[in-house]
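Schema walkthrough. Field components (list of strings):
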Amino acid sequence: MSEAQGHTAASPPAQIGDVETVLLGDLHARVAAAREKNLRFVTATCLDAGENYEIYYHFADGALLRHLRLVVAKGVEVPSISGIYFAAFLVENEIKELFGVPITGIAIDYKGRLLLTEGGPSTPMLKTRLGTED
Amino acid sequence: MMLQRVLTNLFSRPATRPFPRTSREPAVGYRGAVEFEQENCVFCGACSLRCPANAITVDRAAKRLTFDLFKCIHCACCAEACKRGCVQLRPAYHPPVYERPEFAFSGAPALPMEGEDREDLPR
Amino acid sequence: MSDRTVLPFGPQHPVLPEPIQLKLTLENETVVEAVPHIGYVHRGVEKAGERMDYTQNVFLVERICGICSFIHALCYCQGIERLMGVEVPPRARYLRVIWSELHRMQSHHLWLGLLADALGFESLFMQFWRNRERLMDIFEKTAGSRVIISTCTIGGVRRDIGPEDQQMIMQELEVLERALDEALEAILSDRTVKRRTVGKGVLSAEQALHLGAVGPVLRGSGVAVDARTEGFAAYADLGIEPVVETAGDAYARTRVRARECYQSLGLVRKAIEGLPDGEIAVRPRGRPDGRTISRVEQPRGELLYFIGADGSARLDRLRIRTPTFANVPALVAMLPGCEMADVPVITLSLDPCISCTER
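Field assembly_structure (string):
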């Protein structure tokens, strides 16, 4: 991040630089470590990567961003981090609803009705859903 | 201070205009009504490709352009895209209407502009 | 055994600019638990962002929110510019700051008016919105539109602000500053306003940070975090200090926003005075490829875009994390323990923008 602090170049300094890929079993431990260091939970991003889901958890360490990257096969349960970072409950519900990632143990679980309605499209963010139906 | 504000309000003009007795003209650069200069149009479809709202449809073979005013977001991408300057956004408001307006025009392509060499244009 | 009632606050409520429902569990008049329900204005912007051309997406993201519209476009354009290796000319960077800060002022005026209205101070609400009209007129004259100004583009800006317009802006800012002095005096020193906002919705610095709060909510609790300090656009040249208050209550957040209005005023003046010459845009070549994160500071807090591109005309992923999305968990933690009558003011003190939250 050395070239990124307070300079006059045109592009903004926040990079996706510091990414640590974690295994599902280590997720809890790594997030707890982030909590120990008092990192601010920013958000989580889910990507549809064909056979897998790619989930990024973004944390802020002062002005820098640090990311944890998790790759899970579709259908594998992912434990919620809202026990450590309560703020994650909202975005985890969104990921569960829009992508269909089976996240378990979310602090407040909307059971698929946070953003989507009864009789509406399901898991619309998947690549296989064209977004033109319904 | 309160008294000052009361006196100011009591003895000054209202902050609102007595519309519709007077109207307010939009600023000079306002992106308002979309106008097509039909004589100059060659139906190349550049405006249609650039439009983010899919408000313009161009049938190149039939030489027909259709514009859906209700879809238009007045971004002026079409005006930027048109190389012949056929599309303008005038500083004027569209009045409300009872029915969805249908705007379309078709025609023979215009004569080529100076320096333009196009095979499909009549010589 | 005490009386527990579940009261739905919203989605329609005079104090809410956009629909959100809070299911409040009340014990007599005290809130014990609050559960937010959203989804009334979900438009699927992230999905739409994958279907449109990456250049057309600028117009899509602008329309996520009408109050912070330009800054959404700015964040998106910055991300795409980084992926394409585009260097934005200095004049464009300054112009972007000018429009962003005017947007911030417009947003804070809107919010201050809403706060006055929520407290029943309707005439002050009208004063704030009357002052806001001056800013909307500036947008119309310089950018061509009042709300969604559509001037940010990939590679720069679409319009220039010439010398006459610059002078016009400076004159309007003079008038605006005097009007702001008067209106802020009315809201910040009023005894009733203080009684309804001081000590309400308190969030300590540690709580605010842990709950992921951003913007005036975080800065009102004493944590000096402002994405503009990272120096994007022309902020590195102009210099910026986060506006911080320590009390952590609704009054502190009001003071943060009031002081930010003055800060924005100063920034616009400085940007106009130091506006460099040159072109207003460069033509980008090629297509975006790779992944990046772009962060800017909206009036409500930090906005984050995660853009994933694969070299084609359409993006692979457009993830948008808006500030109110980050502040909702803070609201859930802020409400227990407060009186039911304070819920509208506390909710409003977050400056909720639910259209941003749901996208």
